[in-house]
Write a structure and sequence with these properties.
The protein has 118 residues and is of the alpha+beta class. It is built from 2 helices and 6 strands, in the order βββαβαββ.
Length: 118
Protein backbone atom coordinates (compact mmCIF):
# COMPACT_ATOMS: atom_id res chain seq x y z
CA UNK A 1 0.00 0.00 0.00
CA UNK A 2 1.32 3.41 -0.97
CA UNK A 3 1.41 6.28 1.44
CA UNK A 4 -0.31 9.63 1.04
CA UNK A 5 2.24 12.29 0.08
CA UNK A 6 1.64 15.93 1.04
CA UNK A 7 3.70 18.69 -0.58
CA UNK A 8 3.86 22.46 -0.18
CA UNK A 9 2.50 22.32 3.34
CA UNK A 10 1.43 25.65 4.86
CA UNK A 11 1.34 25.21 8.63
CA UNK A 12 -0.15 28.67 9.26
CA UNK A 13 -3.19 27.99 7.03
CA UNK A 14 -3.17 24.23 7.78
CA UNK A 15 -3.29 22.95 4.20
CA UNK A 16 -1.21 21.14 1.60
CA UNK A 17 -1.11 22.54 -1.93
CA UNK A 18 -0.45 19.07 -3.39
CA UNK A 19 -1.75 15.77 -2.01
CA UNK A 20 -0.94 12.52 -3.81
CA UNK A 21 -3.27 9.67 -2.84
CA UNK A 22 -2.99 6.53 -4.93
CA UNK A 23 -3.29 7.40 -8.61
CA UNK A 24 -4.96 10.75 -7.87
CA UNK A 25 -3.38 14.10 -7.11
CA UNK A 26 -5.29 16.95 -5.48
CA UNK A 27 -4.01 20.48 -6.09
CA UNK A 28 -5.41 23.51 -4.29
CA UNK A 29 -5.16 27.28 -4.11
CA UNK A 30 -3.81 27.91 -7.61
CA UNK A 31 -3.89 31.66 -8.21
CA UNK A 32 -1.52 34.30 -9.56
CA UNK A 33 -1.49 37.82 -10.99
CA UNK A 34 -3.66 39.24 -8.24
CA UNK A 35 -5.11 42.62 -9.20
CA UNK A 36 -4.58 42.06 -12.92
CA UNK A 37 -7.16 41.36 -15.64
CA UNK A 38 -9.29 38.23 -15.39
CA UNK A 39 -7.48 36.74 -18.40
CA UNK A 40 -4.12 37.22 -16.67
CA UNK A 41 -5.45 35.73 -13.44
CA UNK A 42 -6.88 32.65 -15.19
CA UNK A 43 -3.63 32.10 -17.08
CA UNK A 44 -1.65 32.75 -13.90
CA UNK A 45 -3.68 30.17 -11.99
CA UNK A 46 -3.06 27.62 -14.76
CA UNK A 47 0.66 28.52 -14.63
CA UNK A 48 0.70 27.68 -10.91
CA UNK A 49 -1.27 24.48 -11.52
CA UNK A 50 1.14 23.48 -14.28
CA UNK A 51 4.20 24.21 -12.10
CA UNK A 52 2.83 22.12 -9.25
CA UNK A 53 2.03 19.23 -11.59
CA UNK A 54 5.51 19.39 -13.14
CA UNK A 55 7.05 19.01 -9.65
CA UNK A 56 5.52 15.54 -9.49
CA UNK A 57 6.03 14.55 -13.13
CA UNK A 58 2.59 15.44 -14.53
CA UNK A 59 1.17 18.02 -16.94
CA UNK A 60 -2.11 19.84 -17.49
CA UNK A 61 -3.16 16.90 -19.67
CA UNK A 62 -3.31 14.84 -16.45
CA UNK A 63 -6.06 17.03 -14.97
CA UNK A 64 -9.40 15.23 -14.87
CA UNK A 65 -11.48 17.69 -12.82
CA UNK A 66 -11.33 21.38 -11.85
CA UNK A 67 -13.26 23.67 -9.56
CA UNK A 68 -13.02 27.20 -10.96
CA UNK A 69 -13.78 29.94 -8.45
CA UNK A 70 -14.67 33.43 -9.70
CA UNK A 71 -15.26 36.68 -7.86
CA UNK A 72 -17.77 37.50 -10.63
CA UNK A 73 -19.35 34.52 -12.44
CA UNK A 74 -19.78 36.72 -15.53
CA UNK A 75 -16.02 36.25 -16.07
CA UNK A 76 -16.75 32.60 -16.87
CA UNK A 77 -16.99 33.69 -20.51
CA UNK A 78 -13.17 34.01 -20.62
CA UNK A 79 -12.47 30.51 -19.29
CA UNK A 80 -13.33 28.34 -22.32
CA UNK A 81 -10.92 29.95 -24.77
CA UNK A 82 -8.07 29.88 -22.27
CA UNK A 83 -8.73 26.19 -21.53
CA UNK A 84 -8.67 25.47 -25.28
CA UNK A 85 -5.23 27.14 -25.51
CA UNK A 86 -3.75 25.56 -22.40
CA UNK A 87 -5.11 21.99 -22.28
CA UNK A 88 -4.50 20.95 -25.91
CA UNK A 89 -7.84 19.17 -26.32
CA UNK A 90 -7.52 17.17 -23.08
CA UNK A 91 -10.34 19.02 -21.31
CA UNK A 92 -11.12 18.16 -17.70
CA UNK A 93 -14.57 18.00 -16.20
CA UNK A 94 -15.18 21.29 -14.43
CA UNK A 95 -17.48 23.37 -12.31
CA UNK A 96 -17.55 27.13 -11.85
CA UNK A 97 -18.61 28.99 -8.73
CA UNK A 98 -18.94 32.59 -7.69
CA UNK A 99 -17.39 33.28 -4.30
CA UNK A 100 -15.89 35.93 -2.07
CA UNK A 101 -12.11 35.93 -1.70
CA UNK A 102 -10.02 36.97 1.27
CA UNK A 103 -8.43 39.86 -0.70
CA UNK A 104 -10.08 42.25 -3.15
CA UNK A 105 -7.50 41.73 -5.93
CA UNK A 106 -8.23 38.04 -6.35
CA UNK A 107 -10.74 37.35 -9.15
CA UNK A 108 -9.98 33.68 -9.96
CA UNK A 109 -8.68 30.52 -8.31
CA UNK A 110 -8.60 26.92 -9.47
CA UNK A 111 -8.43 23.66 -7.53
CA UNK A 112 -7.87 20.47 -9.50
CA UNK A 113 -7.66 16.70 -9.44
CA UNK A 114 -5.14 14.97 -11.68
CA UNK A 115 -4.74 11.29 -12.52
CA UNK A 116 -1.39 9.53 -12.61
CA UNK A 117 -1.48 6.80 -15.23
CA UNK A 118 0.68 3.77 -14.49
Amino acid sequence: MREIIRTEIDKEWAHSAIVEAGDYVYISYCMKNEGQSIENQINGAFDVLSERLEKIGLTLKSVVQMDCLFRDIKDLSFLGEIIKERFEGKYPARKAYETKFIRDGIAFQVDAIAFREN
